Amino acid sequence: MGPGGARPHLGANPAMMRALLLAAFSLLLQPTGAMAQSSQFKGWAAVSRELSIRLAPPGQPFDLDEFLPSRSMDELLGTWTTFGTEHRFRNGTPNALNMTIWHAALSGFAKAVGQSCTSPRLMFHERFLTTLHKLCTWPAPAAKDEGVLLAFWTSVMGYNASEHEYAAWRDFFLREYATEPATETVAAMTFAITMNPSFLLNR
Description:
This protein has about 200 residues and is mostly helical. The chain contains 9 helices and 2 strands. It has one domain (about 5-200). It has a two-stranded antiparallel sheet with strand order 1-2.
């Protein structure tokens, strides 16, 4: 169940669908060899840890389990298990079920980031908050500044993606979201980054 006991809506609105198409397009930018070596998800715990390190205040990690359709579903997104002396990673291979769960969880997180423009729900560290405040003036010219967009991309993605992927993401939002409201745009930007294979998969 999601926050307050309500089950998150699994369907995507048009904005999220456009962002998802961008994430899918980024597959075309991945070298074939790299994708072959990166076919396993990092796992929910690893993604939660990375987002907390990059965005949350020190010592105050996000509780991203609240965005899962059910808190027990984290094991379906890739997890380490131990049986005797055997230690192995399970449920890391992408399939229809875990992709649906990833979509639901990360769209919920992305919407929470977008809502921070008007009704803050998550706590962020100061450096990211400074970038977010600038981006939340979208579609004002200041929000479309290269430095602001690159800072937001790097804050969420880290340094896992290529410059081509960043350029595709930037150009997509400058074109497709040129006049959209900030809350919707920031949510879609976040969703597109977190659904990108460079973010979700082991490299």
